[in-house]
Amino acid sequence: MFGVLGFAGALTLVTGLIHLYLWKRLVRDTTRPGRWRRAGGVTVLILALLAPATLVGTRQGFYWLAWPGYLWLAVMFYLLVLLAVLEIPMLATRLALRRRTRAVVPAAAPAATPAPEAAPAATPASADAPAVAPAPEAVQADAPAPGHDPGRRLLLARGAAIFAGLTATGIVGYGVRTALGPPQLDRVQIPLAKLPRSMDGLRIATVSDIHIGPLAGRAHTERIVATINRLDADLVAVVGDLVDGTVGELGPAAAPLRDLRSRYGSFFVTGNHEYYSGVEEWVVELDRLGLRVLQNRRTEILARGGVLDLAGVNDPAGEGLGFAQGPDFDAALGGRDPSRPVVLLAHQPVNVHEAAKHGVDLQLSGHTHGGQIVPFNLLVGLQQPVVSGHATIDGTQLYVTNGAGFWGPPVRVGAPPQVTLVELRSP
C-alpha cells in the first residue's frame, strides 16, 4: 500500500511540473486574462490529475481510464519534447523582434519639446491659475517598454502552440496506428561456431513483450499467433512480458497461445511484468496452454540429428520483488556439455554480461520495446547494452527484438511491433 502511495506521489510531482510548463506555454502565453485563460487552467489541472490516476488506477482494475489516460500521456510527452525544442528558436525570434522594435521606436518618436523659459515666482494671486502640464515622460509611464510588443509576442506564442499541438497529435495518431497494427516480420541469420552442420538453418520464431492487458486483448494475441504460425518455425521463444494482469482477468485473452505451432516446441521465460501479475498462476496457465516455462533451467533440443541446449533464466524482478526467483545462471547452465551450442532466453538484454561468463553462444531478449516511443530509445540505451537488433557483447551474441505489443500508451513511434525469425547457421 505504501509503495503504491509513494509511486503515486512521485508520479504526481513529476507530471505536475510537466503540466505547469504546458500551462505556461499553451495557456498563459497564448491568452489574455479572462475566461479563456481560466478554462485552459482548469483543463490542464484535470489532465495533470488524469496522468497519475491512469497509471495507478489501471493497476487497481479501473481499466476504463486506460484509453483517455494513456493517450494523453503520449500527447503530453510529445508536447513537452516539441515545446522544449522550440524554446531556442522562440527565444531567438523574440530577441530579433525586440531589436527591431527598439530600432523603430526612436525614429518614430516626436521631436523633443524645447524647454520653457523660466516663469516668474508664483504669487498668492496665481493660486487659481491652471496646473502646469506634466512632462512627456510622465504621460507615457504606463506605455510598453521599448522593445516589448505584446501583440507580436502573443502571435508568436499562439503559432508555437498550434504547431506543437498539431504535430504532437499527428505523431501520436501515427503511433497508435502502428502499435495496433500487425507486427513487422524480421529475419536475421546468426552463425554459431558450435552448431552442427546437420542443424544449419534451424529457425527460432522470437517474440517478446506481447503485453496482453486492458488495451490489448484476445484479438491482439490471435494476430501475433497467426504471424508466428505463418513462419513454420522449428522453435518458438516467448521471452517475457506476456501479460499485464492476472489469469482471472486475462485468461481468455491468452487462450489463443494454445494454437502456437512449431516442430520442437514453444518456450517461455518470465519478464518483469509477470511478477506484477501473479507469476505462479501464469506459470501453471502457460504450461496448460502448451508453453514450456524455463525457470532457471535448460532442455535439450534434438533436431536433424544434432543437439542444442536451450536454457532460460528468470527476470531479475523475481528477486527484487521478494519472490526469491531471480536469475540463476548456475542452475540453468551449470554442468552442461561445453561442446554443444547453447541458446539462452533472458528477458532483459543486460543479462548478457553474466551469460558471457557462462559461455553462452546466443542470448535472445526483449524488454526494451526498441524504445517504443522516440526519443525514449536514447534513455533505454543508458540502461541496456542493446536497444534493438544484433550485437556481440563479451564474446556472446545477443539479439534483442522490439516486442510485439506495447506498455502504457498504445503508441509506437520509430520502433514498430516485431516478430523475428532467427535462423541459426553453422560455420
TrEMBL record:
Residue stretches spanning the membrane: 6-23, 44-64, 70-92, 155-176
Origin: domain of life: Bacteria
Pfam families assigned to the protein according to its UniProt record, in alphabetical order: Metallophos
Annotated keywords: Hydrolase, Membrane, Metal-binding, Transmembrane, Transmembrane helix
CDD domains given in the database record: MPP_YkuE_C
Residues in Calcineurin-like phosphoesterase domain copies: 202-370
InterPro entries in alphabetical order: Calcineurin-like_PHP, Metallo-depent_PP-like, Metallophosphoesterase_sf
Protein's recorded name: Membrane protein
